[in-house]
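Good morning,

Both structures are done.
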Amino acid sequence: MPLPAATSAPTTTSFAEQFTPRARRALRVGSWRAGPPVGDRTAWGRVSERDRTALLAAARHWCVEADRNPPTLSLWARYSSDGDRTPYETAQQALLGAVASSALALGVTDDEAWVRELGDRVWRLCELTAWCLPSHYALPESGERPFLPLPGRDILDLSDAYVGGMLAAVDTIAGDRLELAFPGLRSRVHAEIRRRVLDPWRNEVDFWHGLDGPPNNWAPWIVSNVLVCSAVVETDPDELASSIDRALVILDRFRAGYADDGSCDEGATYWWWAGATLFEALDLLGEVTEGAFDGFAVAPVAAMARFPMVMQLSGESQVNFSDGSASLPTNATWNLLARFGERVGDDEVAAHARWMGRSHPLGFSAQLAPLFRRTLAELLDSAWTTSGDAVPGMPASWYAPGTEVAVFREHAGRVDGWAVAAKGGHNDVSHNHNDAGGVIVSLDGAPVLIDVGVGVYHRDTFMPDTRYGIWTMRSAFHNVPLPAGVEQPYGRGFAASGTRFSDGDGRAVLAMSLLGAYPAEARLTALDRTVSLDRSAGTVLIEDDWAFSEPMRMTLTFLTAVEPVVAGGGILVGDARLDTDPAFEVAVDRIDIDDPKLHEVWGSAIFRIRLVQRATATSGSHTLRVRRAQQYPEPGAPMEAPR
């Protein structure tokens, strides 16, 4: 039974306060289920034929992949030997995909063949030395990273948690059938969940759980899965209550890291592992307490629900500051967002999610294991996109003082026209790129000025001394100034200041000083950036004003997805024209893409426009005017080849 929407005004100031004596008394010990048991043929009969067909095809695919590419010792060792995370993670994902899809296939078919498939793969998963990923296998008491996982010593990382959470959820829908076919398998699964997830949750130091250091997606992602494990495996009310108490301390710390605007400094891609897993944790706590716990009434949860909607640039693309992709991520689950909107009473978010759901059918990707519960919920609610209004909700403008990110559009709730995102902020956010002052521009949903995003994760991605040697992290490859050729460094102290946003009289403006984002060797005494959208004129302006302590040259960089063509005083980028100042020389660099993740978004290359001041000076200014290429045709304008 769905729980009621949260009250419009927060009734408590923390999640912990919501776990009242009444909520403790209401705990459902041993009776919570992630979904209906396989034997409930009425519930499973609600699955649409389209989803049934796609699921069975995915299940057959993942079972073949799991047999073709099992997790092996040599794949595990690749991370220790050369830092390559991908081989083992790909093999583990195939096994997890086979488990998750086999469980769902059993639900939709009630076919005994899927019992055998599921049992064999659950057993294989239980036999793995570690559910943790090689890149995360560090002993919490010392930080030591053994070359191989230690027998009997798993580490409670993201993977360990969601493997446990998936198995616990599978047990609630298919455990009876598995136990009938394989007596003792259920007790083995419960024992592994206790040993690998719940014991370290209770007994080990807090390493990744969000009690120390800045909170990020690890906190709700791990907690949401630990709560599934606890709700399924714990038989003692006091133990279950104790697990919830611990979870709420961590979730409150995570929540406190968000400003009232609900903005996620990890970016739009990571929201689906941050805000979305917070939703799953709070939703479960509401269910396991029969609605006596209502975390959705705590600020800023309702504001957090709006974040994916406001960050969208089109039906397929999004603002991707931090470690995000310009394409919508494969883990975006619009049914979850619709439920989130409904729970916090935000009809606009729910309607937007239904609109997206109509063009993004349920998928069964390589992330099926961590997405298991949200996939199950959508699978069993095939009519969810028609349960209310389905209209795009992207607002005309949105500004988050907490992260100093602004998104503004030519038209509210529409993809056509200009969409602009710009940021102030600092260079020490979670999944940071050195890009204070960065700008993204799209026209009719197509990219004009881009943030490249992040490539395939490697050991170097998360090492402080190597991360900012990766070109996608550097300010020289973002849409920001390069005063005297100097880049922005990493660190909280390198930040924009005086950031302010306004939207009125048809003009949206984000303005800031970027003086503090650069080190002393840039020789700056002032650097101001203003990004604006004039809706009546249909133009975007990026205005920079600066002063040096001695004569220097300013370089301005702008990245594009298509090759720019220099054309008589301006630059053509697809359907857009960039008008530049003749006091600046235009250079275009082709940057070949060899990273698989970036190639999937951008193809074989992206391009960097460098506007280089022709003469040194102690001060200067530049206005980049972006408009439709056909808006003011200039017949006979000479064409120049890119330099």
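Second structure follows.
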Amino acid sequence: MTTLRPRAVGASLARLDGPAKVTGTARYAFEHPVDDPLYAHPLQAAVARGRVSAVDTEAAEGCPGVVAVLTYPGAPRLEETGDQELAVLQSGRVGFRGQFVGVVVAESPETARHAASLVRISYDEEEPDVELRADRDDLYAPDVVNPAFPTDSDHGDVDAAMDRAAVTVDVTYTTPMELNNPMEPHTTVAVWQPDSAVRLLLYASTQGVHSVRKTLAPLFGLEADQVRVISPHVGGGFGSKGMPHAHDVLAALCAKAVPGRPVKLALTRQQMFTLTGHRTPTIQHLRLGCDAAGRLTAIAHDVVERTSRIKEFAEQTATGTRMMYAAPNRRTSHRLAALDVPVPSWMRAPGECPGLFALECAMDELAVACGLDPIELRVRNDPPQDPETGRPWSGRKLVECLREGARRFRWAQRPAAPGSRREGRDLVGLGVASSTYPYYASPGSEASVVFDGEGRWTVRIGAADIGTGTWTTLTQIAADALDAAPDDVTLLIGDTTLPPATVAGGSSGLASWGSTVVEAVRTFRQEHGDDPDPGAESRAGMPENPDRKKYALHSFGAHFAEVRVDVDTGEIRVPRMLGVFSAGRIVNPRTARSQFLGGMTMGLSMALHEHAVLDPRTGHVVNNDLADYHIAAHADVCDMDAIWLDEEDPHTNPMGTRGIGEIGIVGSPSAVINAVFNATGVRVRDLPATPDKLLEALDTLRGA
């Protein structure tokens, strides 16, 4: 594969969009100026299952400033309603508590919110079913798990191998419902223009403008070129903005009902807890068997998780286990319970994050049972090729990450016996976990390159920057491909008038878009030579990569954590975390470090704090704000660092990169939980690790 000559790539270039963001001139979706806007406030179902039986909108419609109140069946009809999450106001059926059942459109957001409180809705309520249990008799196997993995895999005879194993571990782990909670809430500004070539204009907070257009156009009976979506800046997404949600449709419905007036819709933080996706809760049964030397002979990973009754989403929780360690006998499975709950969706590292939490904690338990150092156990089970496909690795350097991390983290000082190191009131321990994430590069992107004259270039691609640094890193890649300086390249992204681009998800964005830009430059050279005329332009799509089918392409890493547990209160503090990663060439060390640390922080948050509580009687998310749903803050960790191996992967793309957006979260919760065990001897198998799960066991240590 032809690779770039790195010049701009590899430099710690400051964010090109940084000045606009710190001066407040970078426009996010809700901030785009439109003439004479209206404001929408949704009405949400107060029951988890049933049907709307009556609606009284008289008081709301009588409020000064109210322009429209939409409910079923008075709302505009949609052309396609196969996706029940997006079939907004198309029936009176309620699939989960918080589902849209109406909306008020008014001259101000305050008026819309007040009028919404005056609408009276009655329901024919049915008994909801929201409880996830592994012993349910209605569990089923989905056709595939996200995005298209086989639901189950089976190699060898796991049960027989377990019976013969010298050492076994048989444990169950659970992870709760978790929420993405990006800083910028989900917002959409919709303009219906019946007399324009662009019938529907949307300013949306999204990880992919073209995916929004592709989804919404047929819903409204429009051709793709009749919809324009603009999104130059996005304040985070973590997967929740990777696909359109009901609020995008609702905003467009409102705009269609009041043509000529733009409609602004911004979900509140509380509304986001039910309407913008979440990480599904999981129940994971792990069985590991090994010989006397600690070499795995069998792995079984069986997952039960939740989906919504109105729309299936099957998280690929056990797929990472299929390739992580060498074992001749392996089995993984996924089973779903379809319940009266909000629709789950992507959340940073779906599948690998919760799945590797369970696997890496089980590996820690196996290391204890074998009397081995946890790093040594992982080294002994490092496979020479992908166990699932048999393909050679494009670059598996997990052992190097573990060894380098152990040296830097002073792993040799780890207490040999759990609960044996005490400093004042604190019990101190160290934990480790491995990390992996697949390499994804999605076809479907195109880019255009224009020579503007006098050494200047313009590169156009409908990509997204969700805060990861795309404005900067894609400019660096384009500059190297063009043999130009970054200052001589103008990058245009975030608009469906630009060539199509795939969604920013699965750590695939830069690999997909960067490969496409490099191909567009190569095409430009072929078509226009080395001395082009000003205005010369070429366009190309992402090329095929034959190595995708020859090699197993994954990033790897090792996480280390130190915890201090107050022996009296059970409070857990994390003074140190370190991540060591093997992710191919790093395009921009400054933005990459930010991505790694962000993922590690989310993993810390998953380990110690995050837990959305769903009331089993009502289907209501009880702690639906950031006061009660705590996420990690600066005070939760003192010293966090991320480093990476100096490498490039010649089998992935012209840049030699692999994805980095998600590997930072995979494994970091396990490292924290494993450190808690090393500090206290308490094995927390149900996230998050709150003090109440430690206090009873700490009574013995308190008296020591």
